[in-house]
Amino acid sequence: MKSSSTSGSTKSLYRGTQIVWYLLSILEVSLAFRFILKLTGANPEAGFTSFVYSITWPFTAPFLAVFSRTTVQGSVFEWTTILAMFVYWLIAIGIIKLLLMGKTVSTPEAAEKLDSQEEE
């Protein structure tokens, strides 16, 4: 039987991972909208398009110099957005792994996991 402090800690870690997944989902959907709007040549003056571009700009800006934009007849294949989506996904996975390191483990469980790591 687990102690209440262990279950409380586990619940907090679970909530933390849920929050990270939720935030990542919002960011990924926003970036996907940006990518699709750019790809389809959406009017940047339209309210929705302008809104999506403005909220996603801070997240794509660090990657703007990595790739050049591919433009064909007003449509833009924005490699930067794809890279941003991948990098933010990796960051979220890293944060979740870091949170899971705080999970309480028993001595036998830790020993078993260490033994399995030695076999790899």
Structure characteristics:
two-stranded antiparallel ribbon, disordered N terminus, mainly alpha, 71% helix, 120 residues
Brief synopsis:
The chain is mostly helical.
User: Which blocks of ≥5 consecutive residues have pLDDT under 50?
Assistant: 1-5
Count of DSSP helices?
4
Distance between the termini: 31 Å
**Strands side by side in the biggest sheet:** 1-2
* Portion in beta strands: 5-15%
Series of H and E elements: HHEEHH
Estimate the helix proportion, in percent.
over 70%
| Total beta-strand segments | 2
Overall number of structural domains: 1
- Give me the Rg, rounded: 21 Å
Query: By helix and strand content, what is the structural category?
Result: mainly alpha
Largest sheet: 2 strands, antiparallel
Q: Would you tell me the overall average pLDDT?
A: 89
Question: What would your notes on this structure say?
Answer:
- With 120 residues, the protein is mainly α.
- It has one domain (4-119).
- It has helices spanning 4-39, 47-60, 79-100, 107-119; strands at 70-72, 75-77.
- The chain has a two-stranded antiparallel ribbon with strand order 1-2.
- A hairpin with a 2-residue loop joins β1 and β2 (75-77).
- The chain is elongated and about 60 Å long.
- The protein starts with a helix and ends with a helix.
